[in-house]
Specification:
This protein is α+β, with helices and mostly antiparallel strands. 24% of the residues lie in helices and 27% in strands. The strands form four sheets. An eight-stranded mixed beta sheet has the order 6-7-5-15-16-17-14-18, with helices on both faces. It has a six-stranded mixed beta sheet with strand order 9-2-1-13-20-19, with helices on one face. It is globular. It starts with a strand and ends in a 26-residue tail after the last helix. Bound molecules: flavin-adenine dinucleotide (FAD). Flavin-adenine dinucleotide binds next to helix 1, strand 3, strand 14 and strand 18.
Length: 382
């Protein structure tokens, strides 16, 4: 008899978990989503997500990134869509600073395809960035941009093709582990399964209150600028980028429409203004938006200083920015994307599926376990 495994929450990690389970022999995969499929309230919306192999967050992620890259290419091939655009990612900063050094360690330790660029090379290649004398760059040749909304829908679509049962507009309100299985409930309806994988992102603590102290939901803002010199921001002249300068951190991607450029990083400390993120007020302080625009224009003079578009999103952070991927009884939890999980989501999903099936996975790190996570301190920020 097939083992029934349900995935609760079909956003970034959940759609990938469902796709993975739907390809696993002996498993009957069921996916449940509280909103419509590919909705706009999750942590995955906003046109693009950076994919990087050279990882300033730490070299320990590199084997998982390799696996994630393979899976992105597989999902792209299965769905007949380009989900990962191999633009490359240029990271710039002062060479002496710690994030830059961590980046160099990850490319050296794992012999990642990359180029190191001096400021002269940066200026010649990327006129869109006004590079400063003390800046240097590392071009991650395997990096690029993912199309997140399309990726989530593609994974769900592939899972359905492989036979997964999918329920949308179904908000799970309780999960009960009976010891021999799990019963998940929504509006009086119950679904009985053998194991469950909970991938509910910013809603995780609602469903599993024990996670409340370990997670913090944070607001993240994306901004777009009109290009006054559009040619400097086309993919032929500009890869994806990350710039760190005097504590100012921005990231972005080349123009997809030929006239506007995503350059983001407006740092607004805070969580949702309503108990549920989809009910939150998405307006921003206009002065803060304009001030951010001025600083962006200083580093990228070929864009107009006022952002012409922005969007507000929420992600779930842990104290050390490692995800929580662990199993308690028949319940596996995968959450705490901490602002950097999209690129890794197919690999994280595979780890969660291994846990659900009681299998070891050599890419699993104990640092993902519940026991390795501290409560998020009040006012935690980094
Ligand atoms: C603005 C922004 C920029 C980012 N940039 C990058 C980047 O460049 N690169 C990168 O790798 N990462 C990036 N990240 C991080 C990454 O996007 C997130 O870490 C990741 O999307 C989190 O995925 P998730 O599956 O935890 O949550 P989500 O994708 O939000 O999925 C959660 C899903 O669960 C559903 N759900 C919740 N509760 C229930 C319930 N009770 N019943 C049924 N369904 C439920 C929700 O509706 C939702 O669909 C960024 C994040 C943001 C917000």
């Amino acid at each position: 008899m097939k083992r029934k495994i349900a995935v609760i929450g079909l956003g970034s990690t959940g759609s990938m978990a469902l796709w993975h389970l739907s390809r696993t022999p002996g498993v009957e995969a069921i996916g449940v989503e509280q909103f419509g499929l590919g909705h706009g309230y999750g942590a995955y919306t906003g046109e693009s997500r950076l994919f990087r192999m050279a990882y300033h967050e730490g070299a320990t992620f590199v084997p998982l990134l390799r696996r994630a890259r393979e899976l992105w290419l597989q999902l792209g091939a299965a769905s007949g869509r380009q989900l990962l655009h191999n633009f490359g990612v240029i990271s710039t900063g002062r060479e002496s600073e710690e994030p830059f050094q961590r980046l160099l360690r990850s490319v050296d330790e794992y012999e990642l395809p990359h180029e190191r660029l001096s400021v002269t090379e940066l200026r010649n290649r990327y006129p869109g960035m006004d590079s400063r004398d003390d800046e240097a760059g590392v071009l991650d040749l395997q990096g690029g941009a993912l199309r997140p909304e399309l990726a989530v829908l593609s994974a769900i679509e592939q899972a359905r093709r492989n036979g997964a049962l999918i329920r949308d507009h179904m908000q799970i309100t309780s999960i009960r582990d009976t010891g021999s299985g799990v019963i998940v409930s929504a509006n009086g309806e119950e679904i009985a399964v053998d194991q469950v994988i909970v991938t509910t992102g910013a809603w995780s603590a609602e469903l599993i209150p024990q996670l409340r102290d370990l997670l913090e939901v944070r607001k993240l803002v994306l901004t777009w600028f009109l290009a006054t010199r559009p040619v400097e921001f086309l993919p032929e002249r500009m890869p994806c980028f990350i710039r760190d300068r005097d504590g100012f951190h921005v990231f972005g991607a080349p123009s997809v429409d030929g006239y506007s450029v995503k350059i983001a990083g407006l740092d607004l400390w805070g969580g949702p203004s309503a108990p549920r993120v989809e009910d939150s007020d998405l307006r921003l302080d206009r002065q803060e938006v304009s001030e951010f625009g001025r600083r962006v224009h200083d580093l990228f003079p070929g864009v107009s200083p006022e952002p012409n578009r922005y969007s507000v999103h929420y992600d779930t952070y842990t104290s050390n920015k490692n995800p929580i991927i662990d199993r308690v009884g028949n319940v596996v939890v995968l959450t705490g994307g901490s602002g950097h999980a999209f690129k890794l989501s197919p690999a994280y999903a595979e780890l969660a599926a291994s846990l659900a099936r009681g299998l070891d996975n050599p890419l699993y790190s104990d640092s993902f376990s519940l026991a390795s996570h501290e409560p998020v301190g009040v006012g935690m920020r980094s």
